[in-house]
Amino acid sequence: MKIEAITLRKLKMRLKAPFETSFGQVWERPVLLVELLADGVSGWAECTPMEGPFYNPETTGTAWHVTRDFLVPLVLGQSVASAAEIPALFSAIRGHEMARAGIENALWDAEARQKGIPLWKLLGGTREEIACGVSLGIQATPEALLEKVGTELNAGYQRIKIKIKPGKDIEYARAVRKAHPAIRLSVDANSAYTLSDVEHLRKLDEFGLLMMEQPLWWDDIHAHAKLQKEMRTPVCLDESIYHLRHAATAIELDACRVVNIKLGRVGGHTSAREIQAYCQERSVPVWCGGMLECGIGRAHNIAMSTLPGFVYPGDVSASKRYWEEDVIEPEVEVTPRGTIVVPQRPGIGYAVRQELIERLTVEKETWRAR
């Protein structure tokens, strides 16, 4: 496959409702889309940083800069046998996983389209239906949270994750568990606590949580190993895992007993598959986290979630939970039993709404091979 052209677009998409985490509140989501042309076939992917360096060091601005000035020159005009060869071309670049994932994942889509098979099959997926969970932002009161939880459970979702931060944690988890004693419930702190909070965090053990996600510093695996020794609740690492070496270190140190694989955070499908395979060999469950993606990023998450080892419902929910109008058709839908039926069409399996994308685009740049 010869990489003939790459187009990077920035879209402005407004969420249906604000989403609050310990980082702050998000309402308008800048979305970066990568379109890659290989042998006359276009593949699409989403580059998933936030607007500011709050979740990880990347931003929409840095991703644009790194893509334009460093990644595109490394791949434009190159011929590769498979998208799995892209990480080797990027080996000189340190970090910037989300920027790298945008180009690699777009080529995975183009490769699957060229071969006339769904992306999930090209990746080695094994299931035609995936279980879905939801991530609920921080609410003003436990009562407001319970109303949200009830709505999502009625929609069929198989796992509820609630965002927490100091002052909005124990009572919120207690309220949900009391109202719904049997549901799969987890909490996500997005690094809002420190080791000095261990006694406080131990209170979460009474709620029979599926996991507690990323409670401590985003870049400290060792501290999470100390915390895990003090708690019954399994620790899940998210922001701390950027690649296989991080995952291997965390598992060897017992810093976590669950791994959240976010496709952009780990640098693309090739790295995600490596982490998934490593964890599966060691009976460590993994699941797919989300970054408030539009339909194109969501489609890639669906494909990844079909891989063996993704045993917990991921944050791969319906388009309508986030957007009045999504950039793919059909939009991602969740069945009443809390699942997504995996698409069978070639590539990501959904049609890209090019006209809507162009209408939402506020910045665009294209590079072509000579």
Key attributes of the depicted protein:
single chain, alpha/beta, Enolase-like, domain 1, TIM Barrel, 2 domains, 7-stranded parallel beta sheet, 4-stranded antiparallel beta sheet, 22% strand
Q: How would you characterize the largest beta sheet?
A: 7 strands, parallel
CATH topology of the largest domain: TIM Barrel
SSE ordering: EEEHHHHEEHEHEHEHEHEHEHEEEHE
Output the strand order for the largest sheet: 5-6-7-8-9-10-11
The overall average pLDDT, rounded, is 95
Q: State the CATH superfamily name of the largest domain.
A: Enolase-like C-terminal domain
Q: Could you say which overall geometry the principal axes of the C-alpha atoms support?
A: globular
Termini, distance in Å? Answer: 16 Å
Q: Are there runs of 5+ residues with pLDDT below 50, and where? A: none
Topology:
Elements: E1 3-21, E2 24-38, E3 41-47, H1 60-75, H2 86-89, H3 97-115, H4 119-123, E4 129-131, E5 134-136, H5 142-154, E6 160-163, H6 170-179, E7 185-188, H7 198-202, E8 211-213, H8 221-230, E9 235-237, H9 244-252, E10 258-261, H10 269-281, E11 286-288, H11 295-305, E12 328-329, E13 339-341, E14 351-352, H12 354-360, E15 361-368
Parallel strand pairs: 5-6, 6-7, 7-8, 8-9, 9-10, 10-11
Antiparallel strand pairs: 1-2, 1-15, 2-3, 4-13, 12-14
Question: Mind explaining what this structure looks like?
Answer:
The protein has 370 residues and is α/β, with parallel strands linked by helices. It folds into two domains: 3-117, Enolase-like, N-terminal domain (Enolase-like, domain 1, 2-Layer Sandwich), CATH 3.30.390.10; 122-341, Alpha-Beta Barrel (TIM Barrel), CATH 3.20.20. It is 33% helix and 22% strand. The chain has twelve helices and 15 strands. It has a seven-stranded parallel beta sheet. Strands 3-2-1-15 form a four-stranded antiparallel beta sheet, with helices on both faces. A two-stranded antiparallel sheet has the order 4-13. The longest helix has 19 residues, at 97-115.
